[in-house]
Amino acid sequence: MQRAERAQGRPGSEGADGPAERSGDTGSALELLVHGVGGATPERMLDDPHTVRVSGDDTAAVFRRAVDAEADSGSGFAAPAGRDGVRDGRPVPEAYVWCNLTSGNGARALWLLLLPFMVVNLAHWMRPTARGRARTVRLYGLLVRLLGLTLTVLLVAAACEVALDLTAWQCAGTRACAERHTWLGFLSPAQSDAGWWSAPGRRLALASLPPAALVGLLWYLSRRTWAAYESEQPLSRASDADEDTDQGSLGRPGFWYGRRLVARLRGAHTAAGLLTVAAAVAGAAARHDREPGGPAVLETLGVLLQAALVLCAAVVVWAVCRRGRSEQHLDRGLDAHLVRHLPLAALGLFVLTLVHAGWARTGWESGGRLPGDAAFSGVALVQGLLVIVLGVVAHLLHRTDPDPRAAMRGLAGPAVAMLACALGAVMSGGVSQRVADWLDGTRASIPGAPVLLTWQASVIPPLLLVLLALCGWHAWRTLVLARAERTVVEDAYPDERRDPERTRRIARTRAMATLTDRAPLFVAVVSAVSLLLGTAALVGALRTGQTPSGAAESTHPFLHGAAQTAQALGSWLIGLGFILFVTSGRRAYKNASARRTIGILWDVGTFWPRAAHPFAPPCYAERAVPDLTWRITSWTRTTGGRLVISGHSQGSVLAAAAAWQLTPAVRKRVALLTYGSPLERLYGRWFPAHFGPAALAALHREVVCWTNLYRLTDPIGGPVRLTGGPEPAVDREELRDPPAHGRTDRHPLPAPVLGHSDYQADPAFAEERARLLARLRPDVPAQRPDTA
């Protein structure tokens, strides 16, 4: 693949708002192709093996066919243009390839470990549409940010449980466990060669370094990915006051540049992680110092240190609650005192805690568990309360401006936030249970993981039974629908010979495509069951203080056996699920078919900016949308020509987001062609505040023309459902898929069921593209309506 470096305008043509407009040939036309989930090569998008890169880098770039490399010189084409400004009936094709923003080497599968952070960030953007409820909207964002903070504390607390409690405190402090793991010999006071590190406080101080290193790694990844993916500034505008006031939130100048909030949240979450590690060490030392006969000086210093930790934690919470995103203008500032000083203060307290814990103490021996039960129970209680309050706030917002198409009647955000908490609990509990089993097995020489984590493992089998029942119900519904669709399929091909097997295959594909529309019910049931089972686990852990099998032992032998089985099965299922989770994520980045299977969920999650959690995977749209906006603006102003943004699948969402960011003058030369688009089917239902009916209707009014193509066999794309008003309807009638039921003169071989792919192969695609170009600059002025 060759690379072509060329200027997009004449020397000295760059202005504050991009390239200066030139009185070029307005007959030139460009089709900017944006691919969807799973990625695509420029050769496949342009249907030509010879392509060149005209702009961009190895991460995201714009490509053209080699024969069109110089198409912007003169008339805008490599060959003379036709009367309507297109060559051979089509504009010059140009491909924007952004797949490297979300895929690449297998190491990026480690981002899946940050899935709870990504899911809670999704909950922020799922708030219902609200008019005139600014304070309630801010409260919604505040609650989600607090939930994100609890997930950070939970993850770091799980790391502390593994490193400090299970390894350094329990196993290294027990002769039987330490003898089985010789690498812990230098930490065990029972060994004959016990050294300086065998004191409990010093053991804890040393074991606290891995959790602290994990916090540092998260801080580094967040900072590095921001610089690599999200630091691109959007196209600046001469005056925000000149913009349309009716446009949606995605048209605001600062929507795709959240530097200030991400930096502040990164500092707060980094400090929260370090404070969690420091609190785990300081709590163990303070418990010993409070015993009778302990050194009064160390006890006083411990009290002061804990008070400083509480004060710093209060500052962290204040920093998270302080303010949300600034979208009305491009905010390039930073809260320097919070971004820099807060993590440094937490790091200083962490070091002081290690020094205090490492001080020599007589008679201090490790026994039982560290005080982690109260910490995990407290985090679970706070998360449950926040989810419930978030549900109340979401319901109030939905009542303000009801949207019948909104998923779960506006409760999608709280439900997804509950799933994020459940994922965090499963991951933290799974790691703790697996490490406890690895260190001790079935010997019961150490107390093991906290009681709450054992209860959470025990509720996994009932949750899986509910999931299996739900999947069975969906399968039955799909089978019934597939049978009903056979008549519809036969009626769609009235003039062709009937083929029952072919009819069943097409009907089954159409029925399977409707599973996407039933996803809200699935999420609602899973979230509700997770909340109920999590509440039961929390109550059981608080009331009994024992594992489920221990709590049931005194009631009935059958219950004791069932609880013991659920406890063991849940522990193994969590470990197995964690392994499958990582391996499937790695496979998804190396195997194209696997990536297409789960890619839509991942690309939807990483499409949104990091507004609730700074350690979530990076947002590729903060690079892709400015890229598209710059390209569209520079080309239209330089050539004065017409441009069709052609977006498939997730590419249609990027195309719509870029169209929102364009100025009104540029939009006059831009048309929107979407196909296989999840704009309304997924984004409109799950993110109603940003892609709901009002937002899509505003986009329809702002762009000159917009056409959407869809098939009923497509499991992702669907109609936009915008009809009525003075503008023509966005949706073209559904495309027939397959184009022929059996063998015909036009299709002598069986035509495949395309579903979500190959929309450009349908003749309707070229027809609608030509129609859009004609509407951008009609050859004959339209006749005025009769006013008589």
Automatic annotation (TrEMBL):
Keywords noted in UniProt: Membrane, Transmembrane, Transmembrane helix
Q: Where in this protein does the record put region Disordered?
A: 1-26, 717-757
Recorded hits in InterPro entries, A to Z, give: AB_hydrolase_fold
Which domain of life does this protein belong to?
Bacteria
**What are the Basic and acidic residues biased-composition ranges?**
729-748
Q: Report the transmembrane regions from the record.
A: 139-159, 204-221, 267-286, 301-321, 342-362, 374-398, 410-432, 452-476, 519-542, 562-582
Supply the name of the protein.
Lipase family protein
Source organism per entry reads Streptomyces cadmiisoli
